[in-house]
Amino acid sequence: MAAVGPGAAGYPITYIWDISSLEKPKQTGYYSAKVKGIDHNQFINGNFAYQSNYGGGLHILDISSIPKDPSGKSVKEVAHFDIYPEDDDLSGGGIIEFVGTWSHYPYFKSGYIVVNTIERGVYIVKRS
Q1: Which of 2, 23, 50, 110 is the most buried if burial means most Cβ atoms within 10 Å?
Q2: pTM for the structure as a whole
């Protein structure tokens, strides 16, 4: 069976929902990542979404445009930390396997982000 939908090509998808009515939530759009991977563990902190995308690493998206443009077309990646660079030469810049970034924690007042990985332990990074 062939894959279908926005994620069929293997690029992580962030779906955008309007939940102003919990009885009638509406999907308004989505953002598609530029590097292949498996998306998971997304956290929102202020105007930013922090995502662990396994082999794709930690991605930080500016989501401040969503209230005015809920389609997701104005969402922009503003930072990226590659945990698994050995897959960078592949088509699409990544692999769809459980390697690399496991999770992260973006809520320290200092702005530091702790990134936990499967193969390489823990990194501490900061968006600049």
Answers
A1: 50
A2: 0.90
- HSE-CB at 74 with a 13 A cutoff on CA atoms is 11
3-state secondary structure of 86: helix
The Cα 91–Cα 110 span in angstroms is 36
Integer Cα distance of 45 and 108 in angstroms = 10
- Which of helix, strand or coil describes residue 120? coil
- Please report, for the chain, the start and end positions of each structural domain, with discontinuous segments joined by +: 13-126
Which residues have CB under 8 Å from 69's CB, separation 6+?
A: none
Tokens of 8: 């069929």
Q: pLDDT digit of tens for each residue in the chain (128 aa)?
A: 677 888 888 889 999 999 999 999 999 999 999 888 888 899 999 999 999 998 889 999 999 999 999 999 999 999 999 988 887 776 666 778 898 899 999 999 999 999 999 999 999 999 88
> Which two three-digit tokens encode residue 40?
């998971």
